[in-house]
Amino acid sequence: MNPKIARHVYGWLLFTPAAIFFILFTHYPIVRSCFLSLFSNSRGGRPPEFVGLENYHYLIDDPIFWQALKNNLIYAFGTIPVTICLAMLMAVWVNRQMAGRAFVRAAYFTPTILPMIAIANIWLFFYTPGIGLFDNILQYFGYPGRNWLGNPDTALACLMVIAVWKDAGFFMIFYLAALQGLPKDVIEAGRIEGAGRFYFFRRVTFPLLMPTTVFVVFNALINTFRIIDHIFILTKGGPDNATELLLYYLFQTAFEFWDTAYAAVLTVVIMAILMTLALAQFKVLERRTHYQ
């Protein structure tokens, strides 16, 4: 065989297993969901019937969907900025020469490696009315306890606190790697010129971290739309749908109500939302991204 052709064949043989899995677990489910969303749900042995966009019309009139979408957007825009700022501050802090730096890094990263179910049960103890950690602290200072997860005004905020606590350490690793990869000559030039820490960070470090920030924002955005574990343990979407997020609503529709057709519609809508947000995000952040 011609050596050039042999190299191409060898490359495609190496690529084929990954491509098969990628198509099987990514592209096929997307196409299948789009197909199922155009049919009615199969009930009592009755085969599904083609209904076109009727399921999407039902979605438009579904108040729980709009509540879940609103909650998800609040959850996303409430957690992502806080998580990124905290991750960046943590990375800058542990990048310095300090005693016990390895221990501090491990402490920041530990919540990331804990299973979400275990984390949810830990925080369930913190939020438990009367005997929970937060209520005990309030009672110690003379304030009455609160039903943190049972109050629609505080339930979603409680979930947001957990997300920030878990994800900040994970994104800190990316910022730490980016900080350690900054060009040494730029840092030395800043020191020679007498630039203060805040000024140097604002004018030099932060712009150089923008590629990492784009990557982190994109991943954080995806994370906010795939939250289900701790909702299942802590609130189950309540109270009064105050913590009903899109993926949990999809889970309920598919595996509790067994409405696979409407679940397919929710899947298509979630994918469309993520694609739209990702494109808008890259359009906005790309202008402020500085590549070396």
Keywords:
292 residues; flat; 73% helix; MetI-like fold; 13 helices; mainly alpha
- What is the CATH homology-level superfamily? MetI-like
Distance between the termini: 42 Å
Rg (CA only): 24 Å
Q: Please count the beta strands (DSSP E, at least 2 residues each).
A: 0
What are the segments in which pLDDT stays under 50 over at least 5 consecutive residues?
none
Q: Which second-level CATH architecture applies?
A: Orthogonal Bundle
Number of helices: 13
Return the CATH class: Mainly Alpha
Average residue-wise pLDDT: 88
Number of domains: 1
Which of globular, elongated, flat, extended, rod-shaped describes the shape?
flat
The largest pleated sheet is described as: none
| Helix content, binned percent | over 70%
CATH topology: MetI-like fold
Class per helix and strand makeup: mainly alpha
* SSE run: HHHHHHHHHHHHH
